[in-house]
Design brief:
Layout lengths: L1 E4 L4 H12 L4 E4 L8 H8 L6 E4 L13 H21 L3 E7 L22 H16 L4 E5 L2 E2 L6 H11 L2 E5 L3 E2 L2 E2 H13 L6 E4 L6 E2 H14 L8 E5 L19 H7 L6 H12 L9
Parallel strand pairs: 1-2, 1-3, 3-4, 4-5, 5-10, 6-9, 7-12
Antiparallel strand pairs: 8-11
The structure holds NADP nicotinamide-adenine-dinucleotide phosphate (NAP).
The site of NADP nicotinamide-adenine-dinucleotide phosphate has 25 residues, from helix 1, helix 3 and strand 4.
């Protein structure tokens, strides 16, 4: 049985739905079983034949984390460590999700799994600490770093852009941060493929959509599809700006593209192109606008 921790979040919901659709035995918990409460975790797992724990729970508010680093640290490091310890005790597999924000973004070629981490902000620091603690407790754990996640079950860049584009005639979007948008559904599929393997290969893996873009280009593509699918009725002027014109509490990496060769070689998982996935995401939610009557 697979235990999805954080099953009400964006990724956890997506994963739950795929497993349920496939009839794979799973259970899900969210804040009802607090990852900070080891006794609650043990009690929940008791009398269940848990073969794999997938941790999708996290503190994900990147800017807020700057003022709440100790809470973020508890949720992104202490909680995952509790789960890793339980996985070891129960001889269960453990898959944990981490982030591109563990890197400083000073690079100009895709980051490999063993490149040194150097987070710029509190969120990245707490996620990097989580990776470290998990690996110290459970050498068999699999950690998947992902980036720029969007999906139908949570607030994210796609939903935010569509909301803003609906109400504004002009919008400024940062065009000097590079990364790879990732559909939560694709990541959930990758997790399923890894879960399917009887002899998982421990360690850190990168998974994002294939290809590199900027938030600006991502926003333009969202608008193009939004108009095509009838989610938007009128175009909004999207202006490219530099990061210094859009100050945020947490500093973001300028370049956080992740190399995905390792997950391809180890598991035969080939992430789809980000533009193809974004189209599929729209297709999965919205009807294509039809030409006219008759
Ligand atoms: N979103 C991105 O762009 C992105 C990018 C890179 C990596 N990631 C990583 O991907 C993973 C999934 O992200 P996501 O966007 O799906 O996250 P999410 O939507 O924020 O989901 C996290 C879930 O964990 C729950 N949770 C919070 N505290 C908990 C606790 N003490 N015990 C149990 N559950 C708790 C949350 O509940 P509440 O919502 O009620 O707090 C939420 O349902 C995370 O590890 C994240 O760091 C995300």
């Amino acid at each position: 049985m697979i235990w999805i921790v954080g099953n009400k979040g964006m990724l956890g919901s997506e994963l739950s739905q795929i497993l349920e659709n496939r009839g794979i035995e799973c259970v899900g918990t969210d804040k009802d079983v607090d990852i900070l409460d080891p006794m609650a975790l043990v009690a929940f797992a008791a009398n269940k034949d848990i073969s794999l724990i997938v941790n999708c729970a996290a503190y994900t508010a990147v800017d807020k984390a700057e003022n709440e680093e100790s809470l973020a640290l508890r949720l992104n490091a202490e909680g995952p460590a509790n789960l890793a310890a339980l996985a070891v005790k129960r001889h269960a597999g453990f898959i944990h999700i981490s982030t591109d924000y563990v890197f400083d973004g000073e690079g100009s070629v895709p980051y490999k799994e063993n490149d040194p981490v150097a987070p710029l902000g509190a969120y990245g620091r707490t996620k990097a600490e989580g990776e470290k603690r998990i690996q110290a407790i459970d050498p068999d754990a699999i950690i998947i770093r992902t980036a720029w996640l969007y999906g139908q079950y949570g607030k994210n860049f796609v939903s935010t852009m569509l909301g803003l584009m609906n109400g504004k005639s002009e919008l400024s979007v940062v065009a000097d941060q590079y990364g790879s948008p990732t559909w939560a559904h694709d990541l959930a599929e990758a997790i399923c493929a890894i879960a399917d393997r009887t002899a998982p290969t421990a360690g850190i893996y990168h998974f994002t959509g294939e290809g590199t873009t900027t938030w600006y280009e991502f926003a333009c593509e969202i608008q193009r599809l939004g108009l095509e699918f009838g989610v938007l009725t009128t175009p909004c002027k999207v202006k490219a700006i530099t990061t210094d014109l859009y100050p945020t509490k947490a500093k973001r990496p300028a370049y956080s593209v992740l190399a995905k060769d390792k997950i391809k070689e180890a598991f035969g998982i080939y992430p789809p192109e980000w533009r193809d996935s974004l189209r599929k995401y729209f297709e999965s939610i919205y009807q294509v606008k039809t030409g006219g009557e008759g």
